[in-house]
Amino acid sequence: MKKIVLSFYAALLTIFSHGFAQGKQLSPDEITGLYWSPQKDAKIEIYKRGDLYFGRSVWVATPRKDIKNPKESLQKRAVRGIELLTNFSFDNGTYTKGEIYDPESGKTYDCKMTLDGNNLKVRGYIGISLFGRTEIFERIK
Questions:
Q1: Out of 4, 39, 80, 100, which could bridge 111 as a Cys pair, Cβ 3.0 to 4.6 Å?
Q2: Per-position pLDDT tens, the chain of length 141
Q3: In the beta sheet, which residues pair with residue 54?
Q4: Rounded-to-integer distance, Cα 28 and Cα 16, Å
Q5: Rounded distance between C-alpha atoms, residue 28 and residue 51, angstroms
């Protein structure tokens, strides 16, 4: 029985290591492009500046001002054009150490992102990633 269990684990290890070795490596710049916001009421452009990645709104369904911004001087700016995603570094398949600004609440959160096919999983959180929420941004083809 012990031999069967050990053989089973050895087979699993072989399958998983072979599968991961042949998996497609993500190029850091694959994230760049246009995405729908989760509610499809805005288009977000992800772009690279230097070694970091950013995202700005390039279209909004309902033009409006950034009235919830805690900085009074920014409350008169249009939401379209705002840099919503800032300072992301690419680290082993994940975009980390960035922030996301939510114009609906005027709050900024720590953030990390992962690309899964045509979906960009954006996780905003406070402190640690466990205390947060993930939203899906769909790539615009």
A1: 100
A2: 444 433 444 433 333 443 344 446 779 999 999 999 999 999 999 999 999 999 999 999 999 999 999 999 999 999 999 999 999 999 999 999 999 999 999 999 999 999 999 999 999 999 888 889 999 999 998
A3: 47
A4: 24
A5: 10
In sequence order, the 6+-apart residues with CB closer than 8 A to the CB of 52 are: 87, 88, 89, 98
Q: How far apart are CA 64 and CA 116, in angstroms?
A: 31
Q: Tell me the residue type at 66.
A: D
What's residue 64's pLDDT?
Answer: 96
| C-alpha span between 135 and 81 (Å, rounded) | 20
